[in-house]
Design brief:
With 352 residues, the chain is α/β, with parallel strands linked by helices. Among the domains are: 60 residues, Dna Ligase, domain 1, CATH 3.30.1490.300; 133 residues, Nucleotidyltransferase, domain 5, CATH 3.30.420. The chain is 36% helix and 29% strand. The protein has ten helices and 15 strands. It has a five-stranded mixed beta sheet. Strand 14, helix 8 and strand 15 form a beta-alpha-beta unit. Helix 5 packs across helix 6 and helix 5 runs antiparallel to helix 7. The chain is globular and about 60 Å long. The structure holds adenosine-5'-triphosphate (ATP) and magnesium ion. Magnesium ion binds next to loops.
């Protein structure tokens, strides 16, 4: 490997597993390594817990797990980008009256305390103009997307990195990693809905012309699908997980499909609410949905969503534009959608 070859790590600490992707620049961007470690490694227990809507991550477990992963997989790069779970990120949008570009930061600062449920001294703020133009002389209000991350969460990730000997180049809300990995150049003129279905939570994001408009998380995800099987069939979690992965939403066993359907319908309803609102407010319609996360790998899932929502639905393939040895293709196909956030984070190193 050339001495100065650039390689970066994308690290996604999820509830049920940690995913690490190492990307390297050669002719194009190539996968040099990847690793995943399930929280089961520590017996029962997750890498994150949520109480009263607040996220708490297990610093010790995550550091230990990461150290094992880096060593076992032989990961070389120390340059890391960490994703911050949407649960630890507050997103809000609000309108400002028309004003000049210079006036916006002050106005955002004034609005922020009323929009963020934590004291400003405890959060890092970021914002983007997502609608309207400061230069159109008062014709339209300006819509702002405000993002706040608790400093506490950022400190925890910094500590973890320090413990395992990584350098944090940046931390970023998961949704921006999803966008980087999935919204292609040709999609920039379209309105896309990115739905990430994890273990504990699902996040629905609307991206219009490459800009995030809406990000909404809620607690129905893979864990609930498994629980539906274990409750209904009176089996343990492990067996329920196997059945979920085997049958998913296919018609192979209609009885099985009925068990999981209400949970999927709950996600579909949320997507419908968001698409309806988008139409009511802005007369805009979604052109395509991309589902990602481990939960999206449910067999027959994309087809089911597509039929119900009457929209094209794709399963995320974050490795589509990345070079990797052909021998890996079967393995990657089985796990790729779960690696979307990790890939999107690592891609940040290449200004993607
Ligand atoms: N082939 C599959 N079919 C169905 N579900 C699957 C499959 N593979 C993984 N899953 C499910 O994906 C979920 C884990 O997804 P993911 O790794 O995206 O979650 P996470 O990032 O750990 O959690 P969260 O994002 O909620 O914090 C689990 O519920 C797991 O059962
Ligand atoms: Mg996740």
């Amino acid at each position: 490997m050339p001495l100065f070859s650039k390689s970066f790590l994308g690290i996604d600490v999820g509830t049920s597993s940690i995913k690490v992707v190492e990307l390297q620049k050669s002719k194009g961007i190539a996968l040099s390594n990847y690793a995943v470690l399930s929280a089961d490694y520590f017996g029962e227990g997750d890498f994150q817990t949520r109480e009263k809507g607040m996220l708490s991550i297990s610093e010790d477990n995550i550091s230990e797990a990461l150290a094992v992963m880096l060593k076992e997989a032989g990961i070389k790069s120390k340059q890391a980008f960490f994703s911050i779970p949407d649960y630890a990120t507050f997103f809000t949008t609000f309108d400002l009256p028309s004003m000049s570009t210079e006036e916006i930061p002050e106005a955002v600062k004034y609005e922020a305390p009323r929009r963020i449920p934590l004291p400003l001294s405890e959060v890092i703020l970021d914002w983007q103009l997502i609608k309207g133009s400061p230069s159109d002389e008062g014709r339209t209000p300006l819509r702002i997307l405000l993002v706040a991350v608790p400093k506490e969460v950022i400190n925890q990730y910094q500590n973890i990195a320090l413990t395992v000997g990584l350098k944090v180049i940046a931390l970023e809300a998961e949704v921006f990693a999803l966008m980087r990995a999935l919204v292609k150049y040709q999609d920039k003129s379209n309105i896309i809905c990115l739905v990430d279905i994890g273990e504990r939570s699902t996040t629905i994001n609307v991206v219009a012309q490459g800009i995030l408009k809406v990000s909404h998380s809620f607690d129905v995800a893979g864990e609930d699908f498994t629980k539906a099987f274990s409750d209904s069939l009176q089996i343990d979690k492990r067996k329920a997980e196997t059945i979920k992965r085997m049958y998913g939403l296919t018609d192979k066993n209609p009885g099985i499909k009925e068990i999981i359907k209400p949970k999927i319908e709950a996600i579909i309803k949320k997507i419908q609410n968001i698409t309806d609102e988008l139409y009511l407010e802005d007369k805009e319609r979604i052109g395509k949905i991309i589902i990602s996360g481990g939960g999206a790998m449910l067999t027959g899932g994309a087809d089911y969503f597509s039929k119900k929502l009457d929209l094209p639905v794709e399963l995320a393939d974050p490795f589509l534009d990345i070079f990797y040895p052909p021998t890996l293709s079967e393995t990657l196909k089985k796990i790729s959608s779960g690696f979307t956030i990790a890939v999107g984070m690592a891609l940040r190193g290449f200004n993607k």
